[in-house]
Automatic annotation (TrEMBL):
Its main location: membrane. Pfam families: BPD_transp_1 (PF00528). The chain crosses the membrane at residues 6-31, 51-74, 94-116, 128-147, 189-210, 231-248. It is found in: Cell inner membrane; Cell membrane. Residues 52-248 form the ABC transmembrane type-1 domain. SUPFAM superfamilies: MetI-like. GO terms for cellular component: plasma membrane. Coiled coil: none annotated. This is Putative spermidine/putrescine transport system permease protein. It is a multi-pass membrane protein. Keywords: Cell inner membrane, Cell membrane, Membrane, Transmembrane, Transmembrane helix, Transport. Belongs to the binding-protein-dependent transport system permease family. PROSITE patterns: ABC_TM1 (PS50928).
């Protein structure tokens, strides 16, 4: 007779408790801004702040831009290494892990030193240049996770056969990457996008040292001045991150004609009932 998987259920329960109990404690604390009552006053205070909305919008746009740039950098690189330069794959993997070794504070000071006002490419002299450096920093921090996700996705498909089939139909290398490789690693890109977004949204070191109005520095500043609002911010950031991840997965796992299919179906039903 098969024994019930008690140990497996126990491990799953402990893992869920390790994740959910602190989250519940934070949520419960965020409701106690008014003594003796459970209210959403802390959330109302946060949402009424223009600084909160601007910081969240800034970090969201920067994170989404980092996802796009990371995908454009990693997918062609990983594809070309697997297709033409398999001997260099260990070197590329090692280079992709360097952001885990180099601290972000060293990384950002290197950016400022290399792209400062006295360099050949002074990017720190304009708002656009500093914002671009920030996005590049986000791409660098997420490079180990994005590369691993895309590389695992490429290992699951036969890129040699797909490339030869595309070339036999007259497709260029660029067309092959855009029309064949990207759609086949879409689920892997979504996984890498999840990690990139979660890392970039609340990143503090690079954002703070570049003096950008990001969400990470805003959370730290609120935590220094107030008590209950930081807990509300943590819950809201968690919920916002998961909603954005769900939306990315929804749009990435559906074909172009399926995205608005429920809306079209509902409109057809309304037209048929008239």
């Amino acid at each position: 007779m098969n024994r019930p998987p008690i140990l497996s259920w126990l491990i799953a329960f402990l893992a869920a408790a390790y994740f959910l109990v602190p989250l519940y404690a934070t949520f419960d604390f965020s409701l106690r801004m008014v003594r003796g009552e459970l209210t959403f006053e802390a959330y109302r205070s946060v949402l009424s702040s223009d600084v909160f909305l601007s910081a969240l919008a800034f970090s969201t746009v920067a994170s989404l831009t980092a996802i796009v740039l990371g995908a454009l950098l990693v997918v062609p690189t990983a594809y070309w290494v697997r297709l033409k330069l398999p001997r260099l794959r260990p070197v590329v993997e090692f280079l992709s892990l360097m952001p885990l070794i180099i601290p972000p504070v060293v990384l950002v000071f290197g950016y400022v030193r290399m792209y400062g006002s006295s360099s050949f490419l002074p990017m720190t002299t304009t708002e656009f240049g500093i914002n671009l450096l920030l996005v590049i920093g986000y791409v660098t921090l997420s490079l180990p996770y994005m590369f691993r996700a895309v590389d695992n996705g490429l290992s699951a498909i036969d890129i040699v056969t797909l490339s030869e089939a595309a070339e036999s139909l007259g497709a260029s290398r660029f067309r092959t990457i855009v029309s064949v490789i990207f759609p086949n690693v879409r689920s892997s890109l979504v996984a890498g996008a999840f990690l990139t977004f979660s890392i970039s949204l609340s990143e503090f070191v690079i954002t703070s040292l570049l003096n950008r109005p990001g969400f990470g520095p805003y959370m730290v500043q609120v935590g220094e001045d107030q008590a209950y609002q930081p807990a509300a911010l943590a819950i809201m950031a968690f919920a916002f991150t998961w909603v954005c991840m769900w939306l990315m997965e929804y749009f990435a796992t559906r074909k172009p004609g399926q995205i608005f299919a429920p809306l079209r179906k509902r409109n057809l039903l309304k037209a048929a009932t008239r």
